[in-house]
Amino acid sequence: MSSFISRTSGSHQAQLAATAVISGALVASAIFGFQAARRKHRVDDLKASIPELSQEHVANKLTDFGAASQLGMSKEDERSAALAARAQKGDYDDDLILEQLARNRVFLTDEGLAKLRSSFIIVVGCGGVGSHATTNLARSGVSKIRLIDFDQVTLSSLNRHAVATLVDVGTPKVHTLQRRLQQVTPWVQFDCQNALFSESTAQSQLGPWSDGQQPSFVIDAIDNIDSKVALLHYCAKNSIPVISSMGAGCKSDPTRIFVGDIAASIEDPLSRSTRRRLRALGVKDGIPVVYSTEKPGPGKAQLLPLAEEEFQKGGVGELGVLPDFRVRILPVLGTMPAMFGLTAANHVILALTGYPHEYIPAKGREKLYDSILGTLQGLEERVARSYGLDVVGLKLPISQDDVGYLVEEVFKGRSAVSGLATRLNLVRWRAPASKEDMVDDRWPGQKSSRLNLTDLVCVTKEEAAVHEREILKGSKQPEDIYDPAVIDLVEARIKEDAVYRKYR
Fold first, then answer.
1. Residue 297: pLDDT band by 50, 70, 90 thresholds?
2. Which of 495, 493, 395 has the alpha carbon at shortest distance from 450?
3. How far apart are CA 296 and CA 270, in angstroms?
4. Most exposed among 190, 382, 449, 470, judged by the fewest C-beta atoms under 10 Å?
5. What was the pLDDT predicted at 284?
6. Do both 325 and 379 map to the same domain?
7. Both 383 and 464 in a single domain?
8. In terms of domains, do 371 and 233 share one?
9. What is the pLDDT of residues 341-375, one digit of tens each?
């Protein structure tokens, strides 16, 4: 072995090869060393460029939901915030505020506007529905608004959010609303709570303002069933006025949006689930809701089932942004949440100012109107026979739409006699003076009743039977069997209908 090493070391070629290897190793070491030194230098430079925490550079931690608690403001935002701070301390001319609210002022009167300006509203959920509700409450004069939402603005939020822009993506929704609305109504005070509403936090989140003022109204714009039920149950239990927005997803028909009691809301899965859970908690009615009676149909958007491969990944609940939250994207036409939010804000404004508002019940009652029309046809035929008239082929000059108008708009969906809202019918209020006043047979081969809408009154089925026997076929007048209050009510509704008939 020693002789081999000695021979190799003495070889000129071997010496050259060894020199090349050693030189390559040294060069590689130098290169790697230089790269490592350069990386360290760059890291040190990057660390050095990060400013120390100070008043100029405020670092905010992430929320419990992984969102930024608040992002920095532009120069314009800073100026708006400074103006708002002065305005909320009283450094803002009240005449300017009244001028900005002039149209509301002449509509609601000074007394009504004063009530609105002194109110304290809580909006829970600041997405498509809540942002539009908040924007219009602020623009209408509400001076104290508490915003509650844990979420932040995303790109997909921009199709329905009232004020968010591209700059606001990644910003908490509550702060986005405050920042944008301060540029419109700097005197409005906002209490922003970038947090999830829950049953455990309800007492503090729905508690009084810093000056002790109790909430005047709560708007529920939550799309999570557990939080929605917790909010509505707390408000009902503690007698806090509240209005709830039901589902705007998959809806497209604005003519089918209604305000009504949660007990009467139909054709809305979110309303149905909420109502069922509230009933289990002892709350069955008394909560006004904004809902749509639009039914799903061919070609319409719908919530599609989760793909099978998602189930293969494990627990579906883990796909949600939070436990018990929906994991599928709900198709939403951007205009519909806006209308739900505006409707909720409109209700709050009317309720707080005492402005008259009587809502028409949901119009999804075509079968009821058709049944009432059929019953009225039979009644007219029976009355005509009592006058000795041939009623074969008798037609009524009343349509299904006329029935709906009388029942819902003139008599508010209730019996004029008892005020009941079940088993409704329409009957002639007074008997025809003669058989000539009963049937029009001037045209050959055609007979029609001379019935007018102003002849009809809404009563229950049982009341209609008595009315037919005693008045239409008997010899009595309404004054003979009804209280004066009933007579006055019917006459007032007939006169009211005459005023509005020109608009039909």
1. confident
2. 395
3. 14
4. 382
5. 81
6. no
7. yes
8. no
9. 999 999 999 999 999 988 876 655 778 889 999 99
CA torsion angle for 21, 26, 30, 33 (degrees, to 10)? 100
Q: What are the tokens at 133?
A: 């509700």
Burial of 30 (0-12, 13-18, 19+ CB in 10 A): exposed
Query: What CATH number does residue 161 fall under?
Result: 3.40.50.720
The reply to whether 328 and 382 lie within a common domain is no
Question: How many residues would you count in the chain?
Answer: 504
Please report which confidence band the pLDDT of residue 211 belongs to, taking 50, 70 and 90 as the band edges: very high
What's the domain range around 413?
Answer: 366-503
pLDDT band of residue 44 (cuts 50, 70, 90) is confident
Residue 361 lies in a domain: no
- Answer yes or no: is pLDDT of 61 > 80: no
Query: Hey, is 419 helix, strand or coil?
Result: coil
Are 329 and 412 part of one and the same domain?
A: no
Closest CA to 375 of 424, 447, 435: 424
Return d(Cα 368, Cα 463) in angstroms, integer. 17
Residues β-bridged to residue 261: 288
> How many domains, in total, are found in the chain?
2
pTM score, whole prediction: 0.63
**CA distance linking residue 287 with residue 111, whole number of Å:** 26
